[in-house]
């Protein structure tokens, strides 16, 4: 029997061809939401599901009784009810590693752009407002030699820290459940308590996954503890930051600036105060968005779903479920 999969994110012809060599594919190149009737109908017979950025609920899983594997084209799995999937014996796969360096580049881009006010000043030039010499009111702050505080020290956090320590001579502080002696030796990084990191870091860089524990982690009390010269960087998930508290902290001068790739609501609503603040760099969730990396992510997701549905251990399983084959 040829297994059936539902693919719901824009894929290139060569991706679809690979999938069609193994499965019957119901492909939705655009999908407004999970209630699309044709999508729900296709799910009823699907053994595999491949896509990203769609919250998967237990109610949706009830409509997919044959589902064996979900292959997400993302490293983050906050859109999936992981325990529920495991309980239903559904294997979840994701795409770690292939996006680490690109996402770290984005993190460093935000550090540089927010410290040196690159977006604000580039806009000034484009709008014909560079009419006199640059003076103190246009100055930024240095990045090299400063203290980089990593909230979370997983693969991407480590890659940002490597750029900071080895490329920019930064001191690195990090919080993590366990110490990382090899990185401490390589980068001179120091493991510390969250509060100490907040008090000492010039750049507080958020790299933790979104979970029940990390939702709203960066709240008003956190911003009060940070230096008034500090810059917040978020490349993780928007909901890790209490956005209202952040806007208040940026407006009142409690913290200096922010560089954000992720938001509580995406796309960021046009009327969000964050869109109007000169001391905030806003990117449209482009952490991994390069041609090379998105290709690698799609390929990893395809390899995952093929292996999972053909009974082999896929390259990047997330939960502990044996492929049924
Ligand atoms: C990921 O892979 O989790 C990125 O944030 C894109 O969603």
From TrEMBL:
Gene3D superfamilies given in the database record: NAD(P)-binding Rossmann-like Domain
Reactions performed catalytically: (R)-glycerate + NADP(+) = 3-hydroxypyruvate + NADPH + H(+); glycolate + NADP(+) = glyoxylate + NADPH + H(+); (R)-glycerate + NAD(+) = 3-hydroxypyruvate + NADH + H(+)
Chain ranges of the D-isomer specific 2-hydroxyacid dehydrogenase catalytic domain: 6-318
PROSITE patterns documented for this protein: D_2_HYDROXYACID_DH_2 (PS00670), D_2_HYDROXYACID_DH_3 (PS00671)
Keywords: NAD, Oxidoreductase
Residue ranges annotated for the D-isomer specific 2-hydroxyacid dehydrogenase NAD-binding domain, each copy included: 109-287
Leading EC class: oxidoreductase
One GO cellular component term: cytosol
InterPro entries to which the protein is assigned, alphabetical: D-isomer_2-hydroxyacid_DH, D-isomer_2_OHA_DH_cat_dom, D-isomer_DH_CS, D-isomer_DH_NAD-bd, NAD(P)-bd_dom_sf
Enzyme Commission code(s) on record: 1.1.1.79, 1.1.1.81
Classification via CDD domains: GDH
GO molecular function: glyoxylate reductase (NADPH) activity; hydroxypyruvate reductase [NAD(P)H] activity; NAD binding
Coiled-coil blocks: none
PANTHER family with a match to the protein in the record: 2-HYDROXYACID DEHYDROGENASE-RELATED, GLYOXYLATE_HYDROXYPYRUVATE REDUCTASE B
Entry's family note: Belongs to the D-isomer specific 2-hydroxyacid dehydrogenase family. GhrB subfamily.
Entry protein name: Glyoxylate/hydroxypyruvate reductase B
Species name: Chromohalobacter israelensis (strain ATCC BAA-138 / DSM 3043 / CIP 106854 / NCIMB 13768 / 1H11)
